[in-house]
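User: I'm new to structure prediction. If I give you an amino acid sequence, what do you actually give back? Let's try with this one:
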Amino acid sequence: MAGPLSCLAAERLRDQFQDMNYQITIVIPVFNEAGHLGAKLQALQGLRDRCQLVLVDGGSTDDSPVIAVPWVDKVVHSPRGRATQMNVGALQADAEILLFLHADTLLPDNAIDLIRQAVAEGFHWGRFDVTFDNAKPIFKLIAFMMNHRSRLTGIATGDQALFMTRQVFATVGGFPAMALMEDIAISSKLKKLGKPCCLNANVQTSARRWQQHGLFKTILLMWRLRLAFFFGADPDDLAMRYYGRK
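Assistant: Good question. You get back a string of structure tokens that encode the predicted 3D arrangement of the chain. For your 246 residues, that looks like this:
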């Protein structure tokens, strides 16, 4: 793998893998997720002996922080905003690999082994392929397009469960403090340090936002927002358009 951090850092990480049970910190930003949070966190319990779970609550007005307490290692509080919450969670991490996981996304059974192998091979960051929790063909097509686009561009979305070493996270300064498109922004920075590991294994994410607001309306909106961001639009304005939609 090419990149300014790829030689010495990769050798050190490989040495550490040989000497210890390498841990991963999973950072989970949440806001008002009480309806399904318990079930999602319960699905991660088999990883507790290998991973640290850090949940970052962005000021929920429901019982999300209370529900999370027995299921995670740390519950921390942060101002609302996914980028801010993930940065706060990263500061609480004890492991050398960070995995940023949306509360409505499920990991494949072998996720930790795949991430550890990717880092041992010299990758400093990466993501999974994504699939939706809806079996309709249109969602399979959307997932295919998302994964294919990501491979072509080297840009990952938060739905794809971004992972990276703490070293490169610090090098790029964490997630930019922006209200939307923070995943695209950090991917652009990470690309300059080395190509991502695009894992074929699927994480499963919720199709609820697509269903709630209308499938084709959501597709068109996301493309318009991405195009506007590419041409320099203010992320705060884009967030108002995204979250303020009817």
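You can read the tokens as a compact description of the fold. Here is one thing that stands out. The first helix runs from residue 8 to 19.
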